Amino acid sequence: MTTQEQFDAFAAELARELGTHCRTAPLPAEGTSRLIVDDDGRALRLRQRQRQRDSRHPERLRVYAALPDESEVSAPSIGVTASSARHVAREIVRRLYPLHAEAVQHAAEITALRQAEEEDARRSAVEAVTRSLPGSVVQECTGAPGSSGSA
């Protein structure tokens, strides 16, 4: 694949191989790349590696599992030979999807832990303020900030 158009056509064929609900989109990045998204919200970043000087090596792709927040959990990726869209799809399903599921689970655990820590910190702050102000009463607000809660 020597042009972005050829790569886009390969990515579209790959999306069809992955499933009828997969679609592709441009991926703003340097080099030849494409985004593939399925109806479950699972996203893959497909990138063509730089051409190797030795023409005996087949073209290689790097496929990254896209995560909602990659600041805490690094996105897993695989390298695969672009011999056919069917081959790449098999490798994604066999090798990358299990890693993607693990990374999503790990990210969810980190998010839940962070939320629990934030809630504990808020509760501790409220308790400290309540202790320092004798006779104070704490009421939990359930509406959006600035809403009065009545119509």
Provide a concise account of the structure shown.
This protein has 151 residues and is of the alpha+beta class.
Overall description:
The chain has 151 residues and is of the alpha+beta class. 42% of the residues lie in helices and 17% in strands. It contains two helices and five strands. The chain has helices spanning 4-18, 85-132, and strands at residues 23-25, 33-37, 43-48, 60-66, 77-81. It has a five-stranded antiparallel sheet with strand order 1-2-3-4-5, covered by helices on one side. The N and C termini lie far apart (61 Å). The mean pLDDT is 83.
**What does the overall shape look like?**
elongated
Strands of the widest sheet, in order across it, are 1-2-3-4-5
* Beta strand %: 15-25%
Number of strands: 5
Encode the helix/strand succession as letters: HEEEEEH
Helix and strand layout, with pairings?
Layout: H1 4-18, E1 23-25, E2 33-37, E3 43-48, E4 60-66, E5 77-81, H2 85-132
Antiparallel strand pairs: 1-2, 2-3, 3-4, 4-5
Helix pairs in contact: 1-2
